[in-house]
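Weekly structure sync, notes
Attendees: PL (lead), two postdocs, one rotation student
Agenda item 3: pending single-chain targets
PL asked that the sequence for the first pending target be pasted directly into the notes so everyone works from the same version. It is reproduced below exactly as submitted, 419 residues in total.
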Amino acid sequence: CISMNKSSFSVSEEIWALKMPGLGAYRLKRLPGVSALAIKVQRELDVRNVVEMGTTAFGSPEWTLLLLRAGINPEALPKEVQLEMEHGGGHAVRHVLHHGYDNLSYKAVLSRWLPKGISVPTGYEVVGRLAHFNLRDEHWPFRRVIGEVFLDKNPTIKTVVAKVGTLFGRFRTFEMEVIAGVDNTSVSLKENGLRLEFDFSKVYWNSRLSDERASLAAEFARGDALVDLCAGVGALALLCARLGFPVIANDLNPAAAYAARQNALLNDLDLKVLQVDAQELLQKMLKCYTLPTDSQDMSGCTDIISALPGSEIHRVHLVMNLPEEAMKMLCEVLSSAGLQPRTANATETMRMIFRCHCYAFDYSEAEVFVNLETALGFVPEGTAVRAVRAVAPSKLMYCVEFDFQARTSGLHCIAGKGR
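Predicted structure, written out during the meeting:
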């Protein structure tokens, strides 16, 4: 097992210092040319060039020391400085400067300790009191030391985990190893004013999408509702519910659906949470809004219609944040439901407007449009594609957005802003 000898970072150095009563060293430091004679301030090493000693009854320093650079002799100081020191009741002393592991930052420790040619890992995400690292193969033999150093330098963190492999399975989770701290992956955090709790090892979570969730919720207007088809622990769903919009949150992962329900209770919000296949839920919803209201088949739509009553809601935002598969899944459902690229006849009864927010990974906006056309057979008029965040040097996460109507005659695209 690879370990670190923390004492190997300890260094002691004897230098000259100017000792002044009270805050006198700070006054000396402000004299012309004196800063250049003092040791260099190194914040990452917690090295300061003025040291405070003792405390008076009033809470102020009893003495202060101005630390001089190695090789600087007090007798060689400018006369103005020497006179100021004498008049202020100060004198020159020898001072031993100690610094070591405790003075060094996470990056400084590992840059000195890791073998030459191996970079300090900086790709991590903080989730509550847990830190999640994406370590390279070269870092893996040193993972436990990396975790311990990170814990030492970040006292609010209690657990450090490292991803083992990549996202897999229907729930987009990944295996992880606790490399330092408490073996507990349950987290509690606040995002956009909401309190969220979940087991990080059992659900998909990305803190970097916090701004995206807030931006999306800000698009909602009176008469809007949200159906989050891959809702995870409910961050977006709860944000929209807090704003007063009707919401259905769905996730096939039982751990995510459970967390969404618990988070609704934590935030005292009303949230309808489902745990079904996203495509099946979307198919059912579209069918419910294209059936005549007097159809016998409408009996199976009670749960959806009651959650999203057409008399109060005019537009439903369909969010599918499953970037590896979302576009394929969405387009399969829309194609099988007969989505038409043309706008419907105005005489046909309109039941609901839907606005899709479908997330995808790709290498350019142009390629997103090509993949959309391949999957759906056409690009809906008014389709907009916007970059959300970079996920690799040349790969981005995009959000594809377009509108369509559900009428008694079927599904029809709506012209709007966009391409």
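Discussion points:
- The first strand starts at residue 11 and ends at 21.
- The longest helix spans residues 254-266.
Action: rotation student to compare against the earlier draft before next sync.
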